[in-house]
Write a structure and sequence with these properties.
Blueprint lengths: L2 H10 L9 H31 L6 E4 L6 H8 L10 H5 L4 H11 L23 H7 L29 H22 L4 E3 L7 H7 L4 E6 L2 H19 L9 H19 L7 E5 H6 L1 H12 L4 H14 L12 H10 L1 H7 L7
Parallel strand pairs: 1-2, 1-3, 3-4
Helix pairs in contact: 1-2, 2-7, 6-7, 8-10, 12-13
């Protein structure tokens, strides 16, 4: 993010940085200064092209964290007719048009080989969440919680836009649109985007991008819960400017309920031919058949062109070891009670049925 945004984040959180995290804060400050300078240079060089770029027929991948959105995004990146915003574009939207390709090529040693929460491979050129780009361009995001996890949770309304004013919604969507046009300037292709945070915004996204299509992926709710708790523990260890004291239990429940209340409201306003539902279990069981079904459902042609790429990805990752989780009976019962509608909507059996 730029220096002004970074100072606002610090001020909003009372500059409450743990002494062990001062080095991270200092590094972030240096990068924010560079981002501010680079953003002005990027606008000077590419501003006209960005303004003239057109967002056409984007595809949004939706689903709660740890539901398989990354897997689906990477599988669909085999379709070379589309671009999938990558890590350098999403983490450094203020500079990637200037020298993002140089970072991708020569600075891979800055990037860990695997994601800390699930061991999936990482890289500057790997598909990434556009939510990070919107945040780094100065808009509110639930992801700000990761910076100061011990402070009150920032603007949870931006998880579903339910209580966000129309003006603030438009500004947020304008920033997403800006980032999409920036990526299109570099890639010259329509986009496939993925951010779990978009799940509760499907109605607003469908209205803003009337030719957009959506793929929602679900996963066994017990795995989603356990894996999301692990996600936030891991991310806060790496990203936070505080030493987290949160056990994440209630936060995971609350975010899920808010997200899917927004999803259900928005889904009712979107024509069914623009939305396809899938499940993680079906995708890993037979990625070729399930991707083919998704393409057919959304009326996307040319699946035969990407089938070899999907097959290759499936072969490369067939030995991938997923995290295993244990769970006490009380937590399982709480998941069933609070997320019952998700079980029923996506065909997962209830133990008390």
């Amino acid at each position: 993010m730029r220096l002004g945004t970074w100072i606002q984040v610090l001020a909003r959180n009372g500059f409450r940085i743990h002494p062990l995290k001062l080095g991270l804060a200092f590094t972030t400050t240096l990068f924010s200064i560079n981002n501010s300078i680079s953003y002005q240079l990027q606008n000077l060089i590419f501003g006209r092209k960005i303004r003239e770029a057109k967002v056409e027929a984007p595809i949004f991948i939706l689903g709660h964290w740890r539901s398989g959105t990354t897997l689906l995004h990477e599988l669909m990146s085999s379709d070379d007719r589309y671009a999938t915003p990558n890590t350098i574009q999403c983490f450094a939207p203020c500079l990637f048009l200037n020298y993002g390709r140089i970072i991708e090529k020569y600075f891979s040693f800055f990037m860990p080989r695997n994601r800390p929460m699930d061991n999936m491979t990482m890289g500057w050129d790997k598909p990434q969440e556009d939510e990070f780009a919107v945040l780094n361009l100065g808009r509110m995001s639930p992801y700000l919680r990761m910076a100061f996890p011990n402070n009150p949770k920032p603007d949870p309304d931006f998880l579903d836009f339910a209580e966000v004013s129309e003006e603030d919604q438009e500004q947020w969507l304008d920033t997403l649109d800006l980032f999409m046009r920036m990526v299109i300037v570099q890639e010259k292709k329509p986009l496939i985007l993925k951010s779990p945070t978009h799940t509760g915004r499907i109605g607003e996204l469908a209205k803003r991008f009337p030719d957009a299509k959506f793929i929602h992926i679900a996963r066994d709710p017990y795995d989603v819960y356990a894996s999301t708790v692990r996600l936030w523990n891991t991310m806060d260890e790496v990203q936070a400017f505080q030493v987290s004291k949160d056990d994440y239990r209630e936060y995971v429940f609350d975010c899920f309920e808010r997200m899917y209340a927004g999803f259900d409201r928005g889904l009712a306003t979107v024509p069914p031919e623009r939305v396809c539902q899938t499940r993680y279990e079906d995708l890993i069981a037979d990625p070729i058949a399930e991707l083919g079904r998704i393409y057919d459902s959304l009326g996307l042609d040319g699946y035969d062109r990407i089938e070899p790429g999907v097959q290759s990805y499936a072969e490369r990752t067939k030995d991938f070891r997923r995290n295993r989780h244990t769970m006490d009976p009380e937590t399982r019962q709480e998941i069933q009670r609070r997320w019952r509608s998700y079980f029923e909507a996506n065909g997962y059996p209830l133990e008390d049925a």
